[in-house]
Amino acid sequence: MKDLSFKIEEVPQEWLALGGRALTSTIVAAEVDPECHPLGPNNKMVFAPGMLSGTPAANSGRNSLGGKSPLTGGIKESNVGGTSAQIFAKLGVKALIIDGLPEDDSTFYHLHVTKEKVVINKVPELVGKNNFEVIDTMMAKYNNKVAVMSIGRAGEMKMLISNISVKDPEGKIRSHGRGGMGAVMGSKKIKVITVDAENYKEATIIDKEKFTKANKVFAKSLIDHPVSGQALSAFGTNVLVNILNEAGGLPSKNFRLGNSENAEAISGETMAENIKARNGKTTHGCHAGCVIQCSQVYNDNKSEYLTSGFEYETIWAFGANAGIKDLDIIAKIDHVMDDIGVDSIETGVTFALAVDAGIIDYGDGNAVYKILTEDVANGTPLGRVIGSGTGNLGKLYGLVRVPVVKNQGIPAYDPRAVKGQGVTYATTPMGADHTAGYAVATNILKVGGFVDPLKKDGQIELSRNLQIASTFIDSTGMCVFVAFATLDNPDSMPALVEMINARFGSNVTVDEMMQLGAKILKMEREFNKNAGFTNAHDRLPEFMKYEELPPHNVIWDFTNEEIDSFWNF
Amino acid sequence: MKDLSFKIEEVPQEWLALGGRALTSTIVAAEVDPECHPLGPNNKMVFAPGMLSGTPAANSGRNSLGGKSPLTGGIKESNVGGTSAQIFAKLGVKALIIDGLPEDDSTFYHLHVTKEKVVINKVPELVGKNNFEVIDTMMAKYNNKVAVMSIGRAGEMKMLISNISVKDPEGKIRSHGRGGMGAVMGSKKIKVITVDAENYKEATIIDKEKFTKANKVFAKSLIDHPVSGQALSAFGTNVLVNILNEAGGLPSKNFRLGNSENAEAISGETMAENIKARNGKTTHGCHAGCVIQCSQVYNDNKSEYLTSGFEYETIWAFGANAGIKDLDIIAKIDHVMDDIGVDSIETGVTFALAVDAGIIDYGDGNAVYKILTEDVANGTPLGRVIGSGTGNLGKLYGLVRVPVVKNQGIPAYDPRAVKGQGVTYATTPMGADHTAGYAVATNILKVGGFVDPLKKDGQIELSRNLQIASTFIDSTGMCVFVAFATLDNPDSMPALVEMINARFGSNVTVDEMMQLGAKILKMEREFNKNAGFTNAHDRLPEFMKYEELPPHNVIWDFTNEEIDSFWNF
């Protein structure tokens, strides 16, 4: 961005077999000074489609974004559905790397990526616009299939809760949500990136027959599994509200309780009833080729569109943790968060803490909506306070009960009552992140066996195995939900690896791919170490060590030594 | 504070010879979990008078406060003049240690310390009051000599810029300024601590004759030195404005320039003229027994009192760095900062950054005054933003040019142009702190020899020697300005150590006291290491590595390896 130039480079031999998280983390580790300011000239943004993105592989449409996070101060990989992964892959682009800050920073820029070049133009007319308008403008300018990655007003203002919006197949929004990467895009003065692959049909596949055969086995494993094949499509990710509430691990009132009095009102079952009664869509894929279809279209009681991609994490954060009982208000909040471009998890956890700070009343969804549209969108002091995320809000208001790890807000599973998930939150180099090693699967859903969520036994090993596997899965372009099948169906993971071999003409084993996952995970931790992280950052908030969580009245009882043993591999 | 109880304990043998910083850091390292939340139940506040406090030793009236800093997240020692050190010492109190949080936190408490006990009472009538009123109330309740340590509204709200105010001999205010320790006192719900030593005259001295003789030599060394004996008493610490401006190391416009167009208007010379013309006092001691008298009383142009203890750092921060040209407005700001209880360095550096954030205009002193009195004092969102300090303001507004080390604002000497001072900022466990190893002495004032401020040669060793000596001096109860004499006059340091021997009947050498300084410094670093600090935290802000500072057009050019070699001792 410094001089608004671009360069097309051959991919170094040693990076050829990588994709997604494996590639973004490798490039960030190789090229970004871990001590750099995340919003300064020396940070980079690295977009990379997964190894299988752009192929017909089921659920392979996720794109990874890497860089140094301004929220955590550590390495970040955040992957997203939508159309960008497939379009990059069809162009044969392994990664888009953006560095520097523009010398002329008087306005924002638009990057248009095609097979041959990157065109960089000033777009003063888009400054201050939000994501839906930007996406519509880009579709009108190019075509309906163009990939669009944009930031809203929050990203322009470099807020730490800002995300990067990615157009889905219907022109709606999926997000590179966590870690404040919208602020990095804002620091580089990039309002929108478009990628056009109109004349390119599919990513290359060396052995198509082998690929198709493996893909059938793999897709079947997803469809056959009760979680990915039934529960997620029937109720969306929001099926988890009732499940976690029953397990006593649904964090409520800013992590004071493990049950919510709002559970039924905000549950996946209630949501599905609303959707059916209001002519919405209960199933919907965030990217082409998804066979799970956990997304949906949610309308209001006049059957007018409210939002889509209405996820458990969002509904939990505002519904249970901040106490907003009305799904429709949460849906309105969800839509405006997409539009101004903020991470719905970080934002929701921040608003729940804002109740403790005395900024809003518990359950007041209208106040949340007003603050988002009037304060966050306009960058008032209050908007900046909320826009700084959970950890910083806690610092500003002198709060102690602040649910963050590495300054990133803790998602929708209380670590005291879902201890495997707690190990993941504590140890992942990403900061508190539920997808990094989704131990909820084995702790609560009894996928991949069962490890008692309330006991410490086996949790370290569970989280470690899941984090290693997830690091690999995040490199394939696959959605995290393929893990249910790979954990329970012995044919699933070999089929996934077989597709990689078929695509690249390689001959890797499942074990070798797990070794790749472990290597990348350790590389990410090494980056963080050089950025100033130690074992002391692999900790849950101190209050969880002495404050019991009802109804099981459990505390976080791992010793530091136990947690630190996570890295013994 | 948990159950509002107190306990008088014998001092363990191994702590008997310690005082001030050596004692507070030793107790904090022994008793505070480095991973604890600074505002939670497991942090402690440790007040300890210096080894010589309460004796007639010249300039020995400083009291140390230790704990885990909520601003830096590391160990903190902040020492202060006023009357508290001498009164603790006269009572024979080696340290006052405060732990826990009160179970009943519905209001604030008053701790009254006497020889026999600590009386703890609720003081709802003092909640929301500021420091001058609290001090006046306590003097009326007890006597004019009672020691008072209080927090203003900023401390009640646990703001990270809040400090702890200490009554000086005239009922004015000195401060445990840096590190946000007022927020720790606020977290423990303590509004005010009083210490009464009415019937106790002097700390015990084993060999009075030897003591008196050594004190004469020591006091003479202070008075004979041109800096401590003449410059500081004639112009106050503010003598440094013109000196640093000439040296090109006076940070201006948020560390963009090394000279200020306001230098003459805000200089010590101008200040002294105003004081004389307006019937103020050019000399004044912050504690009884001070022979340097660098403080003063500053009146407005109607000869009405404006402020006292009007220091270079404050005047620089608002005058040069934030561009306020009018000393009288800065004096008004200084007074209100004392009253609401905020650190004048952190607050000033934050306001200079607030210009970059677009919150105030450069040089607008009235806007600063308004924000302090209306927003900070009342905890509005804007008040919370400013109240969170420089580093957090930078995070909220996505700023890159943020002058902090370990999240603490950098004081009044640009490290690029006063490189020895930069080494101190980078390496001291305290966060950016000018008193931790005042290399300005040798870089600029040519005290203790001369090390060229613009070159790297010799700076690491200079800062190391100064930090070790300062750690010892901070343990004696002596003010940092005794260092000028100890650096230049070979009789000075031996006389200081001789007073310690005379007081305690010990037989320690100067070398042994330097070893003590080194040991405490390493102990502090070890605490920080266990709290999550690494070499990566011993860094100046990245922008100083690539942005040249006029007029010398110098950058911060130390390598990481050079800085890390500081700890090779």
What is the helix content of chain A? 40-55%
Rg of chain A computed from alpha carbons, rounded to a whole number of angstroms? 22 Å
Q: What integer is the average pLDDT of chain A?
A: 97
**Hey, roughly how much beta strand do the residues of chain A contain?**
5-15%
Of all chain pairs, the largest interface belongs to: A-B, 45 and 45 residues
Shape of chain A: globular
Can you count the helices of chain A?
24
Residue windows where pLDDT falls under 50 for at least 5 positions of chain A = none
Q: In total, how many beta strands of chain A?
A: 15
- Helix-and-strand structural type of chain A: alpha+beta
Lateral arrangement of strands in the main beta sheet of chain A: 6-5-10-7-8-9
Oligomer status: homodimer
Q: Could you give the distance between the termini of chain A? A: 40 Å
Largest sheet of chain A: 6 strands, mixed
Describe this structure in words.
2 copies of one chain form a homodimer. Chain A is an alpha+beta fold and 569 residues long. The first copy, chain A, contains 24 helices and 15 strands. The first copy, chain A, has helices spanning 20-31, 84-91, 131-141, 153-156, 181-187, 208-224, 226-235, 240-247, 263-266, 268-277, 312-321, 327-340, 344-356, 365-376, 381-387, 389-396, 419-427, 440-443, 459-476, 482-488, 492-504, 510-531, 543-546, 560-564; strands at 44-49, 63-68, 75-80, 96-99, 109-113, 118-122, 147-150, 164-167, 173-176, 190-195, 281-284, 295-299, 305-308, 404-405, 408-409. In chain A, a hairpin with a 5-residue loop joins strand 8 and strand 9. In chain A, helix 11 (312-321) packs across helix 12 (327-340) and helix 11 (312-321) packs parallel to helix 13. The longest helix of chain A has 22 residues, at 510-531. The first copy, chain A, is globular. The mean pLDDT of chain A is 97. The interface between A and B is large, with 45 and 45 residues.
